[in-house]
Write a structure and sequence with these properties.
30% helix; disordered N terminus; globular; single chain
């Protein structure tokens, strides 16, 4: 594969610097350069696995931190603080002398020239490109719903959800004291996948258990949590018995579960489903995902130099969510030095697309490093194969469902599933401080019925909050 010239690498690493770089940072032009875009589970594990290979690695991400996404909902519902589940990328990779981190956003890909361009104006040359930028929310063409019903994909999303949920109780207390009434405290969660189930259960926990003694003029336990899903059952990707147990647990927590509920409109303070309007002081979205825009950028990337346009490669194919369809080596058609991982990849195994969750992303990251190592050694690449260890979802306080595939096969629910969930998530948290902090936060919350991160930041407005009593019905 073509090696970056000294001039190209200097542009990459020292944009806006003097033409002659200091000797200590002179690039090694003979080493292949790997550019990793995105530092989620896939990108970060790819970078870590490249630590001992004779390559130079550049990790590019819009944020400066890695987020442990499976625990985002606990930040959103004030169980944990953002620092418990996020850690600076530079800190994680600080012991890798062959790796540098660039806080920037990729806005263009030139597959023919083997370069990516960034929002800051930099142009990064690569020998290998790893795209692992994940997914964002999908409102199925109704993007106007996003300000009214935020989703949960980032720390910023989590803190915004926390602000809205906690603010609803605070506004109700203030309005009850000042005016003697408040609008119904209805929380509507749209989407019955793991995120929606976890959010609904956690909101119910907050209202029923953790805030019951904190207010003087309202009763948080009288709030309603409604979980809406357009399908016939919650957790549709799970076995039917676990789906049924999850629904039973949700109802026991007081969550109003509505299946076959097709949301047709969302407005300030209300949701319309199946022709019925539901009042909602907070509406949360967990119904769909859309691949990051980098898939479309790659599909639109130049295929060959103008002098050799006849040698254009096959077209990159996207699925309906914008994911890049890849082969057994995680490559798009005709691009053996470009790897697409995680939620951005559409990879099928045994006739089924593997899920866009943490497990496959981690395994993809490790496997890409093995394939690059094989290339450097002149050996054939091994095809990627996903090893499914199972799926888990929590449902409120000390309850969960788990479809265990390894080291044994079992369907767990209740406390055994929750204990398994806690063990796995503590193990995979990066950094001992994070593990200890999260463990102590959980122990304190579960045994003392308190929340340690109940902070409201930002403005004090909610879309559609009613500060005037509803008009009396006409006779």
């Amino acid at each position: 594969m073509p090696e970056p010239t000294t001039q190209e690498t200097a542009e990459t690493r020292h944009l806006n610097q003097p033409a002659i770089a200091p000797a200590a940072t002179t690039p090694k032009a003979h080493r292949p350069r790997v550019v990793i875009v995105g530092s989620g589970f896939a990108g970060l594990n790819a970078a870590k696995s490249l630590k001992h290979l004779p390559v130079d690695v550049t990790v590019v991400d819009r944020s400066n931190h890695f987020t442990f996404q499976p625990l985002l909902y606990q930040v959103a519902l004030a169980v944990l603080s953002p620092a418990d589940i996020a850690q600076p990328i530079r800190s994680i990779l600080r012991h890798q002398p062959n790796t540098e981190v660039l806080m920037d956003e990729v806005i263009g890909i030139d597959a023919a020239a083997q370069r990516v361009s960034t929002a800051s104006g930099a142009s990064l040359a690569y020998d290998y490109l790893i795209l692992a930028t994940g997914a964002t929310h999908s409102y199925f063409g109704n993007d106007q719903w996003e300000p009214l019903a935020p989703g949960l994909k980032s720390v910023e999303d989590a803190t915004e959800i926390r602000r809205r949920v906690l603010l609803a109780f605070e506004l109700a207390e203030r309005q009850m004291l000042e005016q003697g009434w408040h609008p119904p405290l209805n929380f509507v969660v749209i989407g019955g996948g793991p995120t929606g189930v976890e959010l609904a259960g956690a909101i119910s926990d907050i209202a029923q258990l953790y805030m019951r003694h904190d207010f003087r003029h309202i009763d948080p336990a009288k709030s309603r949590v409604l979980l809406l899903d357009s399908g016939p059952r919650m957790l549709a990707a799970y076995p039917p018995d676990l789906s049924a147990k999850a629904e039973t647990t949700l109802r026991r927590l007081g969550v109003e579960v509505h299946t076959n509920a097709q949301v047709t409109a969302i407005g300030p303070g209300w949701v319309e489903a199946n022709g019925q309007r539901i009042d909602a002081v907070v509406t949360l979205w967990a119904a769909g995902v859309l691949a990051s825009p980098l898939g479309k950028m790659l599909a639109a990337a130049p295929t060959a130099n103008s002098a050799a346009s006849s040698a254009a490669r096959p077209a990159v194919i996207l699925d309906r969510r914008g994911c890049v369809i890849v082969d057994d080596h995680l490559n798009p058609p005709g691009l053996p030095n470009v790897f697409v991982l995680g939620d951005l990849a559409h990879f099928e195994q045994d006739g089924h697309q593997i899920p866009g969750v943490a497990q496959p992303a981690i395994q993809m990251g490790h496997h890409v490093a093995k394939m690059i190592s094989a290339d450097l050694a002149g050996k054939p690449r091994l095809a990627f194969r996903y090893f499914d260890k199972g799926d888990m979802a929590t449902i409120g306080r000390m309850s969960a469902v788990a479809n265990v595939q390894w080291p044994f096969k079992a369907h767990l629910s209740g406390f055994p599933a929750w204990f398994t969930w806690v063990t796995v998530h503590i193990f995979f948290l990066i950094g001992f401080r994070n593990r200890l902090s999260v463990l102590l936060s959980w122990a304190w919350a579960y045994f003392n019925f308190t929340r340690g991160a109940r902070l409201i930041t930002g403005n004090q407005t909610l879309p559609g909050w009613q500060n005037k009593p509803p008009a009396p019905p006409q006779k």
